[in-house]
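Shipment paperwork, digital attachment
Item: protein structure file
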Amino acid sequence: MGEIINKVKGLDVMTIDVKDFYAVGERVQIDLSDFLEDGILMEKKFREKLKNYNWAIYNNKYVNINVDNKLIIPSWAFLLVSYYLSQFSKDHVIGNSRSLEEKLYNISLDQLKLTDFKNKKVIVKGCSNIPHIEYVYNELTRRLSKTVLSLMYGEPCSRVPIFKKRLN
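Attachment content:
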């Protein structure tokens, strides 16, 4: 019987694990309507509530500020809330939890050195348990498609080809 050869080990591919782009940290949500009077923003009371609020509870956390789209909120109100959160939170967005995750993913993805993948075969690992994983897949494909020789999905032993460029 001949020697067993591990063909997977010998593959000339780079692997990207999408879970590496997930920003670890606690996520919390603020409902902007909690600072309003019966759904109405009254400037003096709004400013007072913001000033007296315990913003320290958001220390070192990722925050999304939920806003009911039926409410009429002046633009300056978002600046005030952002100002107070900036003193404590790791990061924050106006929007839902998906908006927060997309922002955090983009920050991580921006650290990816695309030149490291120039004309390489790349596998994007599947089966990670991170929220909104399809967003990461989309962004990785969009960014890498201009750089890599080929892109695959899955594991080296069972990969699904996404595309392959022809070399001239």
